[in-house]
Design goal:
By secondary structure, the chain is of the alpha/beta class. It has 5 helices and 12 strands. Among the domains are: about 70 residues, no CATH class; about 160 residues, 3-Layer(aba) Sandwich (Collagenase (Catalytic Domain)), CATH 3.40.390.10. About 15% of the residues lie in helices and about 20% in strands. The radius of gyration is 21 Å and the shape is globular.
């Protein structure tokens, strides 16, 4: 949060997730301490401001953990130019003040593979625009590709003893989970993304292996060439762009008790029923049983289906299936689709 120092008025606010936040829920975090890069972005202030960093605590409360005063004329503030690298506008011609600007940043692509990167971005753009609600906004979404050049092709696969010299330092086996592909180097990700105007970042990793990761307003990551890349990309982008939660509960994860059952999750597509009124209750048709049994008659209905957020009991999702639950779903459920649409409208107005 950014407050005008003189008036005390809140002039900017932006929420986001992070790998550090996820790491805190792992078993490792109970035994050791680690440090993580953190990046906060906001418009350059005209006058003195108060910068406040708040964190959602386990009980759902929002607690201030850091604050400082920023003088925009402070000589310690470095006005730096963006990294000198090539970029392309892949799709969209709308002014970025009235559009959603998405930037794909290359990871694990050598200089000789930049044509492949651009073609991969075009392919993923076509995939994204094939899904509702994105397909309704193709003229309001700008797609950029930033040529972050790696020394070697691919990405790290520690479980197989494979390590590559790449520009964004991505790696499978995040938190020792083989399919979880991320980078802790958020500083480099942001530096390369800043080459163009952007609202959200997609790190595209040059690999045929299955994997990816995504955190709200942090970045979304996916591999380029697995046959399930379309599903992984749209799933992870649901996290990164719209703050959607995972709805699955049978796959292995590194987290422990990620969602306390006595706290309402902030994500729009899961509920513990602590505050169901704030979620999708108004989208459920009269006559739909609550909770809703996972039966074929309710396959296309919005209801209250138990299982979600890595837990089979006590956490509920809106529909039987959704891209945030499985790769087999045809697309997003109606609640996730509405959440994404609302986010797009937020940016373009």
């Amino acid at each position: 949060q950014i407050y005008d120092l003189e008036s005390g008025k809140l002039i900017y606010s932006r929420g986001y997730g992070s790998l550090f936040q996820e790491w805190q829920t792992t078993a490792e975090a109970k035994n050791i301490q680690r440090s993580f890069y953190e990046v906060a972005t906001f418009p350059f202030p005209k006058n003195d401001v108060r910068f406040v960093l708040k964190k959602y605590m386990k009980d759902g409360s929002l607690k201030k953990i850091y604050e400082t005063v920023i003088d925009p004329e402070d000589y310690f503030i470095r006005i730096e130019h963006a990294i000198n690298t090539e970029y392309k506008r892949i799709s969209g011609k709308k002014d970025h003040h009235r559009a959603v600007d998405l930037v794909f940043v290359a990871e694990g692509y050598t200089e000789e593979e930049m044509d492949k990167f651009h073609n991969d971005v075009r392919r993923l753009t076509d995939i994204l625009f094939g899904y509702a609600p994105y397909k309704d906004y193709t003229d309001r979404i700008n797609i950029w590709a930033v040529d972050a050049i790696s020394e070697e092709s691919g990405t790290d696969i520690p479980g197989e003893g494979i390590y590559r010299k790449t520009v964004l330092n991505s790696s499978f086996y995040t938190f020792d989970l083989g399919r979880y592909l991320t980078t802790f180097d958020i500083k480099s990700v942001r530096d390369y993304a800043a080459v163009v105007p952007y609202d959200n970042i997609i790190v595209l990793i040059n690999s045929e292996r299955y994997g990816g990761g995504g955190m709200y307003n942090y970045y979304s990551g996916t591999t380029s060439d697995h046959h399930l890349t379309p599903q992984v990309f749209t799933h992870e982008f649901g996290h990164g762009f719209a703050g959607l939660a995972d709805e699955y509960y049978t796959s292995n994860v590194a987290y422990e008790e990620f969602y306390p059952l006595d706290v309402e999750p902030w994500e729009a597509n899961i509920t513990t029923l602590v505050d169901f009124e704030s979620k999708w209750k108004d989208m459920i048709e009269d006559g739909t049983p609550i909770p809703t049994p996972p039966e074929a008659i309710y396959a296309d209905k919005v209801g209250l289906f138990e299982g979600g957020g890595y837990s089979a009991k006590g956490i509920y999702r809106p529909q039987i299936n959704c891209r945030m639950k499985s790769n087999e779903a045809e697309g997003y459920c109606k609640v996730c689709e509405k959440t994404i649409r609302d986010m797009i409208e937020f940016y373009i107005k």
